[in-house]
Amino acid sequence: MIARKALPAGPKSPPAVQLLHWIFRPIPFMRDCARRYGRCFTVRLPRTPPFVLFSTPEAVKEIFTGDPEQLPAGETREILRPLVGQHSLLLLDGARHRHHRRLMAPSFHGERMQAYGQVMREMTDRNLDTWPTGRAFPVHTCMQEITLDVILRTVFGMDEGPEQGRLRQCLADMLTLGANPIRLIPWFQRLVGFFTKGRQIADLLQEIDALLYAQIAQRRQQGGAGREDILSLLVEAHDEDGRPMSDEELRDEMITMLVAGHETTATSLAWTFHCILERPEVVDKLRAELRAVVGSGPVEPQHIARLDYLDATIKESQRVYPILPIVGRLLHEPLRIGGQDLPTGVMVAPCIYLTHHNPDIWSEPDTFDPDRFLGKRVSPYEFFPFGGGIRHCIGAAFALYEMKIVLAQVLSRASLRIAPGRSDPARDYLCPVAGNAGRV
Ligand code: HEM
Questions:
Q1: Whole-angstrom Cα distance, residue 325 to residue 181?
Q2: Model pTM?
Q3: Residue nearest to atom 17 of ligand 1 (CA)
C-alpha cells in the first residue's frame, strides 16, 4: 500500500467511487481532476496500483524515453491476459517484447500497406453497397463491420468458406463479449459463473483456438505460397537464430491484433465522421481535395500520401477524441517524473486526452480545426493518439492507411448528414460513439 502523501494530490473519494467515475464519465472526471489538481494528479481504483496522470510534454517525454526496464508496460495490461494470452505483444516486456516486435514489424512496414489497401477498398465498397438511402443508420456499426472484414482478410488471410465462416462468427462473438472488460476479470467470471456470458467467453475461446490452430497448421503445411496476409508472413518469420514463432505465440499475436486493431480503428473512424458531419465546410474541402488528387476513379495507393487535408482531418479528430484516454507504465524503481519523486509500484500514465486538450499546447483545444495540422510537424509528446516510445502502436500506419481509404471511398460515393433528432453522441465518453447519420 503506497501512502497518500508519497504521491501527487488527487481525488479523495473511495477507490470504488473513482472507478465509477472512470467507467461512466471519464472525460468530465479527468477534466475536473485537472482543474482541481493541475497537470499531474493521482487516481486510485480498487485492486490496482495508484496511477499518476501527466499531461505536460516534458513529463510525457520523460516517460516515453525512459528506460523500459524501469518503466515496463506489459504489467499494466494484465486484464487482457485471458483474451490475448501470455505471448501477446501487449503483455510482454524486456527481451521477449523486443524479440516479438522485431518479428512482427515487417508486416506493418509502409510498403506492405499497398497490398492491404486493395482489400481495405473492397471491404469498404462492399459495405457501402448495403447502406440505406433516406433513413438514419449507425455509422459506428458499419465501421465495425468494415474494420472486422479488413482484419480478417489482411491479418488472418481469411477467404470465404464454411470453416472460415465459423471462425469469423466466433471471433465476432468474442469481440462483442470482450467489449466489456469487466467480463474478463477472473473474480467476476467466478462470481457469475455458469449463468452469465463469462462462461461463454471461455467456451468461445476454446473453439476459436481449435479453429485457429487448424489454420496455422494449414499455413505451415502450404508455406507462404505467395500469400500476403500477416499470418502467412508470421508463419514464415524467423529470428536471427532461425527460430520461428511457436503455434501458441502465433495464436496469441493473431488475437492481439484483432483485439487491439478492430474496435480502435472503427471508433476512430466513427468519431471522424461525427466531427466532419458537424462541420460541412470540412466535408467540402475534403471532397475538393479528393477531386483534385483522385479524380473520378477509386482511391489508389499512390493517392494516399497526397491527401494532406484528409491526413490533417484524421489527426484533428484523434486529437479531440483520442480512442484510449491514457497509456500506462509501471514503475519498477523510484523515479523522478515531471518534477515529482515517485515510489516503486506506481503506474505512471501519459494522459492522451488531457495533453491533447492542454491549452498551453493547443489554442482553443476543444475546437475541431484540421487546419492546425496542415503543413506542421507536431511533437510526439504533445500529440500521441498511438502512444509512444518503444511501445508505440505497431498498427498505427495500418490504422491510418485504412482510415484514409475508408473516408475517401465513403466521401466519394455517399452523401451523409447527421440524422435529425438523433441523440447526441455522449460527449462524456471516449467510446462508444453513437455516430448516427443519414444518407441523402
Ligand atoms: C485508430 C486505431 C488505433 C489506435 C488509436 C491505437 C492505439 C494504441 C495505443 C494508444 C497503444 C499503446 C501504446 C503505448 O502504450 O504507448 C497501442 C498499442 C498496440 N496496438 Fe494499436 N491502435 C490502433 C490500431 C491498431 C491496429 C490496426 C493494430 C494491429 C492490426 C494495433 C495493434 C497494437 C498492438 C499489437 C499494440 C501493442 C504494442 C506494444 O506493446 O509493443 N493497433 N495502440
A1: 15
A2: 0.93
A3: 393
Residue in 65, 84, 393 to alter for ligand 1 test, most ligand atoms within 8 A of Cβ: 393
Average pLDDT over residues 424-429: 44
Return the minimum-mean-pLDDT range out of 26-40, 167-181, 396-410, 424-438: 424-438
CB-facing half-sphere around the CA of 265: CA atoms within 13 A? 31
Candidate from 12-26, 183-197, 269-283 with smallest mean pLDDT: 183-197
User: Could you state, in order of their start, the residue ranges of all structural domains in the chain?
Assistant: 4-157+227-439
d(CA 281, CA 277): 9
Angle between helices 280-293 and 396-413 (to 10 degrees): 100
Residues with C-beta less than 6 Å from any ligand 1 atom: 73, 89-90, 101, 256-257, 260-261, 264-265, 268, 323-324, 327, 385-388, 391-395, 398-399
Instruction: Name the nearest CA neighbour of 130 among 116, 142, 122, 121.
Output: 142
Pick the CATH number of 4-157+227-439 from 1.10.630.10, 3.30.2130.30, 1.10.1040.10, 1.10.600.10: 1.10.630.10
User: What confidence category does residue 222 fall into, taking pLDDT thresholds of 50, 70 and 90?
Assistant: confident
Treating both helix axes as pointing N-terminal to C-terminal, what angle do 396-413 and 308-320 enclose, rounded to 10 degrees? Answer: 110
Tens digits of per-residue pLDDT, 98-116? 999 999 999 998 888 888 9
